[in-house]
Amino acid sequence: MEIYAKVAVQGDAVRLLKTNKATKEEIDAAVKELLALKLDYKTLTGQEYKVGIPPTNSTPVNSNSLAVEEDDGDYVDPWTVQTSNAKGVDYDKLIVRFGSNKIDQELINRIEQATGQKAHHFLRRGIFFSHRDVHQILDAFETKKSFYLYTGRGPSSEAMHMGHLIPFIFTKWLQDVFDVPLVVQLTDDEKYLWKDITLEQAYKYTIENTKDIIACGFDVNKTFIFSDLDYIGQSPRFYQNVVKIQKHVTFNQVKGIFGFGDSDCIGKISFPAIQAAPSFSTSFPQIFNGQKDIQCLIPCAIDQDYSSGKLLTGELKKILIETLQPIIAAHQTRRKQVTDEMVKQFMTPRKLAFNF
Amino acid sequence: MEIYAKVAVQGDAVRLLKTNKATKEEIDAAVKELLALKLDYKTLTGQEYKVGIPPTNSTPVNSNSLAVEEDDGDYVDPWTVQTSNAKGVDYDKLIVRFGSNKIDQELINRIEQATGQKAHHFLRRGIFFSHRDVHQILDAFETKKSFYLYTGRGPSSEAMHMGHLIPFIFTKWLQDVFDVPLVVQLTDDEKYLWKDITLEQAYKYTIENTKDIIACGFDVNKTFIFSDLDYIGQSPRFYQNVVKIQKHVTFNQVKGIFGFGDSDCIGKISFPAIQAAPSFSTSFPQIFNGQKDIQCLIPCAIDQDYSSGKLLTGELKKILIETLQPIIAAHQTRRKQVTDEMVKQFMTPRKLAFNF
């Protein structure tokens, strides 16, 4: 119970600072502390912290990982999506467990109003079904404050399949309707750390995957695609943000979130900081001119598991193939038109078509 | 005993590969495996592996750290040097425990012969008393193969005292007599991670400490001084080497060597890779033109503890002060002549006066 009280008190402290219009640094520090306490709470109780609702069962979770298998047979962590349930993963339960929010009709209406555009069918059909703090981004957008998009890809092979492209197709739509900068991180360092490949292979996958991403139709004037192996060594600001994040995250915390153990290499253990750094606009001084307060929206897949395709009947499979084939063929055609020069342009650190 | 046999077998394997002139990659891989096994051996037995001498006592060491306090009351790890023995730390025992070698008269003679110079009094008087593989460096040097020097400094305050300067004074002598490139790493990222200071403060200490180092008289055409916070983000090759090292070191290993625990931040845990990277010449493509086989000699202090000064008698103290004061005054005079422009020159990644 002690940790529950700590989170509650810290939550009050943050609200008080905001009400009293404290400096950004003070509020940020308090929020950071709050998030750390919430994480401790989750690790200790196995439950999301909810205002006014003490933990229903204070028995500590024995597992190292937050990604616990529950009664429904679902198992989801950053690398695995499995279920023993014939109906598939229960994503509504997952939203509760991950502490995110459902994208409801109200939010979709608000997006349409803010952008003056019909919502993408991925939103209307619930393909993108969960979010965190999108209302906050829309608050800013409605008062003419810009934000930026950050998404990424772990380049684990030369070819990206349709499932890998879904987040990029949706991201392109977001970029079009909101008219904002986009940064795309290719985590070739991560793939080198996790897989039995060389740095050279990982970087080669980055270049091939970048072609697939460009072929989704991104505007070169609004998009920066980067390889970690290449860009981190070109940006002192990025590395400085990595070190800042690394200072404020303990091994206990990454153990809890990612399930790392003592025999994991130190590269894996510190990797979460590399993936967090792009969510700070100061990691891209060439784009944001050193501004610290640009919010970031991260479109990403809660999982990338399409293996349940094998459960489909032959008839449904046929329809799907007929529908998908022209989409894939069009993508392949566009991909062939992506030149090395275009790849270089997208991957050059530079100012984009926005003034920050 | 099993681990003892494993090390012995792997040692034979390495010798066999060398005899059969296997490829560099094969030998390197085998050596890496051997070193890992030796480390395991040390962790399990608390003893250095010695050919033909099985462990005298196979009881596992319970401590996480190799830096165990022994009967003599000495405690030495990378951050602490303490002894409860009135005679001070027994460095001969330390050499045995660290698995390094004593700098003996034979080695000093060989250095004088190779360089054609009288050995520095720090060598003759045993101030620098321990080494690893210096004979290997001399073998190369005698066949006209160059090497380079790498040393560093954790910038923890604005002023460096005499003790901090000793390794640099000796390094300058090495550079002069061997005529080789020198890289100096200022680990401001480390100090930020370990201490309660901001990135800006850490970087400020770097600049001030760099002035002290330059004042030791280093040749700007042969010396590259760098801040981690600055240079890592200017060198993709350096970052790529960091990732390579991070992949091959586990948390268990750094736990054993540095005594890290689960509540340490992930920055500390992965930091050893940052400090190891400069010992690979490919981390400095501007200096070594991408060459992989340049050996590196690392002059460094086995400790930096001068607190036993308080045990000196007043008379001895007086003599020391009289001897040191002119040295310090001369250094201060030179330091005042170090301009911002000079600092910038030393800290600019560039080709040095050597052709690789």
TrEMBL record, chains A, B:
Gene3D superfamilies given in the database record: HUPs, S15/NS1, RNA-binding, Tyrosyl-Transfer RNA Synthetase
Recorded coiled-coil stretches: 13-40
All residue ranges annotated as the WHEP-TRS domain in the record: 1-55
Biological process according to GO: tryptophanyl-tRNA aminoacylation
Single GO molecular function: ATP binding
SMART domains: WHEP-TRS
UniProt xrefs under Pfam families: WHEP-TRS (PF00458)
Keywords: Aminoacyl-tRNA synthetase, ATP-binding, Coiled coil, Ligase, Nucleotide-binding, Phosphoprotein, Protein biosynthesis
PROSITE patterns: AA_TRNA_LIGASE_I, WHEP_TRS_1, WHEP_TRS_2
Entry's Gene Ontology cellular component terms: cytoplasm
PANTHER family, per database record: TRYPTOPHAN--TRNA LIGASE, CYTOPLASMIC, TRYPTOPHANYL-TRNA SYNTHETASE
Protein name per its UniProtKB record: Tryptophanyl-tRNA synthetase
Source organism of the structure: Scyliorhinus torazame (Cloudy catshark)
